[in-house]
Amino acid sequence: MTGRPRRGPVRVAGTRAQARRTSAQAGHGSRTTPHRTYSATGLRRANGKAANGSTRSRFASVRIILVVLLSIAGLQLVKVQAFDAEALSARAERQRTTPIDIPAQRGSIMDRNGTKLAFSVENRTLSVNLRLMRKTWDEFAQQHPEKGQNFETRSAAAARFIAQKLPDKTTEAELLAKFRKPDNFTFLVDDVEPSIAEEITDGENFPEISVEKRAKREYPGGTLAANVVGVAKWQMEDPDVSKHNLHGLAGLEATWDNELAGTPGRRLVDTEQGGDVVIPGTERDIQPATAGSDLELTLDADLQYDLQSKLSDYVAKSRAKGGSAVIMDAKTGEVYALANDRTYDPNDLAKATPDQMNNRAVTTPFEPGSVNKIVTAVAAIEHGIATPESVLPVPGALRVADHTVRDAWTHGTQNFTTAGIFGKSSNVGTLLLAQKLGEEPFADMLKKFGLGQRTGIGLPGESPGSVPPRNQWSGTTFGNLPIGQGLSMTVVQMAGMYQAIANGGLRVEPRVVRAKVNPDGTRVEQPAPKTTQVTTPETAKTVLDMLRATVQKGKGQNSGTAPAAALEGYQISGKTGTGQQIDPKTKAYSDSLYNITFAGVLPADNPRFVVGIHLDAPDTTLPAGHSAGPLFHDVASYLAQRYQLPLSKEPSPVVPLVLS
C-alpha cells in the first residue's frame, strides 16, 4: 500500500538492550520487558513520579534528623542554663583566676622589759610579667611604627627610671638583664619603700610593673641575742604565681614560726590564659590576714649585751678557740642572758657562716672537768659520807684500775677538809669520797642533776650531752666521771646543776620564752617548767656554803682555786673546772688542750643569779687562759649593779682547807 504514512502516536519498539539503554538514560533502574513499548511522554511521566517519591522520602529523613538534633541541642542548652550554669561559671573562673596568700604581719620578739629584738616593717617587691610586656609593646610597635617604641625601648626606659629611684638597691644594667630574661615572669627589686613603689608603678610611669606587699624583718640590735632569737626571711614557694611567705630559719624564729607567722589572708588575681603569670592590676582581696603573736622572752637585752661583750673580749684575751656563757635566775630557771663569742647579724644573713649561726651554748657539749665535782659533793653530804669540816688524808696520786690520777699540783699526803677538797679542787680527794659513796648512789645523783638529758630550754638543736650507760662502766669509768672526764654537758646543763643547789635542791627546767602575747593583747604565760628535787634543802645549803671556799683568799694553802672571782661586798659560791680535751690527732686526752669552766652563784647567802662559763681551748699559760674566775667577777659586778642586789650581811668566813 502506497501513499503518505498515517499520523498518530509513534510506537517505539525495541529490543531488550534498547529498553535497558532507554532506562539508563532516564536515570532510573526500572526493569523493562521485551514485550513492553513506551511513548516518550509516558516514559517521562513514569520517571518523574519515581524521582519525586524518592526526593520526598529523602527530605523527610533529613527533617527527622534535624528535629532530633535540634531537640538534643535544646535539651543540652536548657541543662547548661538551668542546671550547670553555676558550676560551669565557677570552673571558668578557676581557669582564669588564681588565689594568692596575703602575708600576715609577723609578731615581734621582745625581751623581758619590752625591748624589741625582732619586728617587721612593711615594704614592697617589684616584679614584671615579661610575657605580657613583650606582647603588649611588640603589638604597639606594629600598630604605631612611627613612635619607635617596642619592648626593648620600653624596658630600657623602665630600667633607667627604677635605677634612678632605687640607686642603693639596684643598677640599670642589673634591671636590663632581668628584663631580657626569656622567662615569663621575674622579680626586679626587693625591700622597696611603699611610697617609691607606688611612684614607679602608677599609671603615668610603668603600670606593667607589679607590686607585691611584703614585710621586712628588722633586728635592731644586730648581733644582740642573734643565736637565741634567730632569723626569718622570705622564702619563694611557687615562683610561677609569685607566692611568698616569711618563715623562721633559725632560733626562736624557727621554733615559734607558726605562732609568730599568724594566718595569711587570701586574694584573687587574674592570670594569663594557659599560664600562671599574674596580670597586673587584677588583684582583689577576699579575706584579710590575721597577725601573728608576739613573744616575750626571759632575756634582759642590756644584760645580754654586757655578757656578749665581756665574753668576746675574754675569749680574745685568753686566745681561746671560742666560748659560751649563760646567766640564769637561781629560783625560776629563767635565762637572763645566753651568749656565744662568735655570732652573726641577722640583718646581713649573707655574711653569716654556719659556725656563727650555731648556738653552741646549747648544741655543743664538752667535758667539763672539776665543775662536775658538785655531784660527788652533794651525794657525799646527803649520804653522810662527810661534812664540810671532816678531814680526809689525801695523797698526791691515786691508782684507779689501769691508770693513775693526780692532783693539779704536786704534794704528798695531806689532811684536807671536805671544803678543802672542793675549794682546792683535789682530784684524788674527790675520788676517795666517791669510792666511799659507791657507784650506784653516784649514778643516781648524775641522773637527778639531769646529765645526759636535754634541759628543755626550748631552743632548737639542744644536745643532751652524754653519760656512759651504767651497764657499760669499766674499771676506769668511776675514776673519770667524779672529776668531770668521760661525760659531757652544755654550758646550760652545767649552770642548771648549780641552779639546783642555789634553789634549795630543786632543779627547775630552764626557759627563754616567758609568754605569748596574742594579736588582741591577751597574754598567755608559758606552762610552769618541770622540776626535779635533786637533794634536800639542808644538803643544798651545806654544799652552797662549802663552795664559798673556792673564791676565798687565805694564808698558805688555804686559798681556793679562784679568789679572782670574788666580788667585794657579796658572798660568792662557785667551782672551777679544767677538763682535758681529746687531741684530734692522737685521739687521746691532750696535755695542752683544755676546757676551762666556771660556775658561780651570786649572792651565796641569798641566791639570785647563777652564771656558767665555758672557754674552748684557751692558752693556759696566760692568766686569762688559766681560769674563767676573772670573767665571772666582771659579769657578777654588772649583775649586782643592774639589779641593785643588796650587799651580803657579812663576808664569807675563811675556813681551813688543808691542815698542816
From TrEMBL:
Residues 102-277 form the Penicillin-binding protein dimerisation domain. One of its GO terms (biological process) is cell wall organization. The chain crosses the membrane at residues 59-78. Residues 323-635 form the Penicillin-binding protein transpeptidase domain. Keywords: Cell cycle, Cell division, Membrane, Transmembrane, Transmembrane helix. SUPFAM superfamilies: beta-lactamase/transpeptidase-like, Penicillin binding protein dimerisation domain. Its main location: membrane. Belongs to the transpeptidase family. It comes from Amycolatopsis albispora. GO terms for cellular component: plasma membrane. Signal peptide: none annotated. Residues 30-40 have a biased composition (Polar residues). Residues 10-27 have a biased composition (Low complexity). GO terms for molecular function: penicillin binding. This is Cell division protein FtsI. It is found in: Membrane. Residues 1-54 are annotated as: Disordered.
